[in-house]
Amino acid sequence: xxxxxxxxxxxxxxxxxxxxxxxxxxxxxxxxxxxxxxxxxxxxxxxxxxxxxxxxxxxxxxxxxxxxxxxxxxxxxxxxxxxxxxxxxxxxxxxxxxxxxxxxxxxxxxxxxxxxxxxxxxxxxxxxxxxxxxxxxxxxxxxxxxxxxxxxxxxxxxxxxxxxxxxxxxxxxxxxxxxxxxxxxxxxxxxxxxxxxxxxxxxxxxxxxxxxxxxxxxxxxxxxxxxxxxxxxxxxxxxxxxxxxxxxxxxxxxxxxxxxxxxxxxxxxxxxxxxxxxxxxxxxxxxxxxxxxxxxx
Length: 297
Hints:
Helices cover 48% and strands 12% of the residues. The chain has helices spanning 10-19, 44-48, 60-68, 94-101, 116-120, 134-143, 157-179, 183-205, 215-225, 231-241, 252-262, 271-281, 286-292, and strands at 2-6, 26-30, 53-56, 78-81, 106-111, 125-131, 149-154.
């Protein structure tokens, strides 16, 4: 099987590391930045030539522009989005942009607790592949067979994609709570409220509530929200601890706060989400505003 990675940053390279040992797989990769990896090809059209599976790991802020420059993907190839975000201009999720740009290809979403550092170490985990049919899922499943990534099927492609976006936003609050030294008890309250709100938001926008109780939902949320390897967690922690802040550009959660809220008919039903907006977008006093979100449990 020929597999091409579009976007070969840390996540893309980590996923590729699961497949490199398989004799029946040929890996190619394309990225705007040189990675020094032997499988990277400079010309994107050459990189996708003959591909049976194309995995996208481009940051959401650059996803739309990236698609404009891609030609030559075989119509028989399955396209997999590993990108978690919403396009700020169109309000579309990555899988929706793939379906629009490549209408003859089957599209899937890959999500779950898949921290890049742990994938590279071969530590076992589970993920969710959401697709419109099991035939598409089977292609992705076959590629990762006999690897440390075990995959489950979901037909809720919208809900799985939304869960990936939302967990980045709510992880900001997890890191914030730790940075403020609010303790384990309070952080557990943040977790519960995040799960409640995520589940409702997924339903309101058109996904299935049950998706929250999958690897792509609560699994991804907990892995990211309890890991200091997560940029979203690190950024939230730094705000709480009043440390020097890194660039916001690569913090997916920051870039999606306003976009998520714009999709909600009644944002007042989501007190933690609004608190996150006030703290990270409007510079509200962090501890006071976070506590205010829990006046009613």
